[in-house]
Amino acid sequence: MIAQPYPLYIERADPANNMARYYAMEIGQTMFGEPCLTRRWGRIGKLGQEKHHVFEREEEAVRLFLDLVKQKRARGYRPRTALRY
């Protein structure tokens, strides 16, 4: 069982370069109870791509989650600051 949820949604936008990207992650469980990190990314407003990583222990999923957050922050991704309509 997962100790706590780990949801994250971040964006990177640069109108001058026509860039509008999102990156979302969360740690959940497979139907067999294994920890699973789900990543989704793509252009804002589009479906994008999705990848699942299944682990034996929750700590491994959290470690990858934190590593990916660090990488994305270094590339300029930030939490969404305003609502879009």
Secondary structure elements and their pairing?
Elements lengths: L7 E7 L4 E11 L5 E9 L5 E6 L3 H17 L3 E2 L6
Antiparallel strand pairs: 1-2, 1-5, 2-3, 3-4
List keywords for this structure.
1 helix; q64v53_bacfr protein fold; WGR_domain; elongated; 85 residues; five-stranded antiparallel beta sheet
Outline the low-pLDDT stretches: none
Cα-atom Rg, whole angstroms? Answer: 14 Å
**End-to-end distance:** 36 Å
**Shape from CA axes?**
elongated
Keywords: Plasmid
Protein name: WGR domain-containing protein
InterPro entries: WGR_dom_sf, WGR_domain, YehF/YfeS-like_WGR
Organism: Rhizobium leguminosarum
What would you note in describing this structure?
With about 80 residues, this protein is α+β, with helices and mostly antiparallel strands. The protein has one domain (about 5-80): Single Sheet (q64v53_bacfr protein fold). About 20% of the residues lie in helices and about 40% in strands. A five-stranded antiparallel sheet has the order 4-3-2-1-5, covered by helices on one side.
Q: Concise description?
A:
This is WGR domain-containing protein. The chain is of the alpha+beta class and 85 residues long. The chain has a single domain (6-78), classed as q64v53_bacfr protein fold.
